[in-house]
Automatic annotation (TrEMBL), chain A:
The keyword Transmembrane applies. InterPro entries: Cyt_b561_bac/Ni-Hgenase, Cytochrome_b561_oxidase, Di-haem_cyt_TM. This is Cytochrome b561. Gene3D superfamilies: Transmembrane di-heme cytochromes, Chain C. The chain crosses the membrane at residues 15-35, 50-68, 89-110, 146-167. It is found in: Cell membrane. Residues 9-178 form the Cytochrome b561 bacterial/Ni-hydrogenase domain. GO terms for cellular component: plasma membrane. SUPFAM superfamilies: Transmembrane di-heme cytochromes. It comes from Pleionea mediterranea. Keywords: Cell membrane, Electron transport, Heme, Iron, Membrane, Metal-binding, Transmembrane, Transmembrane helix, Transport.
UniProtKB/TrEMBL annotation, chain B:
This is Polyisoprenoid-binding protein YceI. It comes from the Bacteria. Pfam families: YceI. The keyword Glycoprotein does not apply. Residues 27-192 form the Lipid/polyisoprenoid-binding YceI-like domain. It comes from Pleionea mediterranea.
């Protein structure tokens, strides 16, 4: 079933969830690795180019995911979930989305600080919106890095919670996203 | 009467001498406000071309008297974060730990220790450059471009200079390949007499 029901996520929600998860992990690893590349590495120019291209496309996917979430039913929390668990899960989900968008925006602001646009796979160019603050590339760069670490920390909490529900509580929380 | 005249003439002699004294140690402020001063650099890119850039934010003073050029002095302080190579991503990289570490070493400073007139308007400027936390004596081959009244009631003097800095000498790793181990500085300053 493409759409969500009251008790489970639909195929599209699941696909979007796991696609975003996979891309986020890959982007984090690539970002971590590419900033240390030697100037003479074959990847010195290509890795940041792919990182930026994928990041911008991912932002579109996440926007669509939010749109899909809005126009769709939201599965109810399981009856066994405590109020604290439900609240904590909501906060975590909200923070995950906020962190994602903050990372998209800060990343965009690094590369566009000098008026240059960002080429997405030599396919199309997202134009620069200009420089908003002095040394924007440094400030945005630092935010981008720390937000990325923060996101991975949040993702770890999110994943540990899912594992706890699956193996300790032995409920359906994780299964309905699979 | 005679006494007072003598006293008077002596006084004026002394004050004239004092005035001369201040004139000979003319102090100039480098005109960074009106951006008539430039700290430019160039470094080889892969050995195939030159990459140029500059530091946008700095200030300094010098003293100069064309009669006594050897008494000249110059001091310049540079905000290292103001490096500008016309590419935000590259500037970010140049400011990072890989190169200038501007978080740690926000200022670079040059203070002259000995200025020698070489004739024909040429000057050898020896001084201590502090860059990336390392202080080293460097020599700038300088040249006086001109001096005189400006159209707005001030008095200006200008110089240009060249020097070459080895990245390694200032503890900056040579990450850019064998052709890019030194950076060539091209300095242009204009001072307004204070």
């Amino acid at each position: 079933m493409l759409k969500n029901t009251e008790s489970s996520y639909g195929t599209l929600s699941k696909a979007l969830h796991w696609l975003v998860a996979l891309v986020v992990f890959t982007m984090f690893a690539v970002g971590f690795w590419m900033v240390e590349l030697d100037y003479y590495s074959d990847w010195y120019k290509t890795a940041p180019h792919y990182h930026k291209s994928v990041g911008l496309l991912l932002s579109l996917v996440v926007i669509f995911r939010l749109f899909w979430r809005m126009i769709n039913k939201r599965p109810e929390p399981l009856a066994t979930h405590s109020r604290l668990e439900i609240f904590a899960a909501h906060v975590a989900h909200l923070l995950l989305y906020l962190a994602l968008f903050a990372i998209f925006i800060s990343g965009y602001l690094i590369s566009t600080a000098d008026g240059r646009g960002i080429e997405v796979f030599n396919w199309f160019t997202i134009p620069s919106a200009g420089e908003f603050i002095e040394q924007q590339e440094d400030i945005a760069g630092s935010l981008h890095k720390w937000l990325a670490y923060g996101l991975i920390a949040l993702v770890s909490v999110h994943a540990l919670a899912a594992i706890k529900h699956h193996f300790i509580d032995r409920d359906n929380t994780l299964k309905r996203m699979l | 009467m005679k006494k007072t005249l003598l006293k008077h003439s002596m006084l004026s002699f002394v004050s004239a001498f004092l005035l001369m004294g201040t004139a000979s140690a003319a102090e100039y402020k480098i005109d960074t406000k009106g951006a008539h001063a430039f700290i430019n650099f160039k470094i080889q890119h892969l050995g195939y071309s030159w990459l140029t850039g500059r530091f946008n934010d700095f200030e300094g003073t010098f003293s100069y008297d064309s009669e006594k050029p050897n008494d000249s002095k110059v001091m310049v302080e540079i905000n290292t974060a103001s490096i500008d190579s016309n590419h935000a991503e590259r500037d970010k990289h140049l400011r990072s730990d890989d190169f200038l570490e501007v978080d740690k070493f926000a200022k670079a400073k040059f203070v002259s220790t000995k200025i020698t007139d070489k004739g024909n308007g040429k000057l050898e400027v020896v001084g201590d450059l502090t860059l990336h936390g390392v202080t080293k004596s460097i020599t700038i081959d300088a040249k006086k471009i001109g001096e005189g009244k400006d159209p707005w009631g001030g008095y200006r003097a200008g110089f240009s200079g060249k020097t070459t800095l080895g990245l390694k000498d200032f503890g900056i790793p040579e990450r850019l390949g064998p052709a890019s181990t030194e950076v060539h500085m091209s300095l242009h300053i204009e001072g307004i007499r204070q």
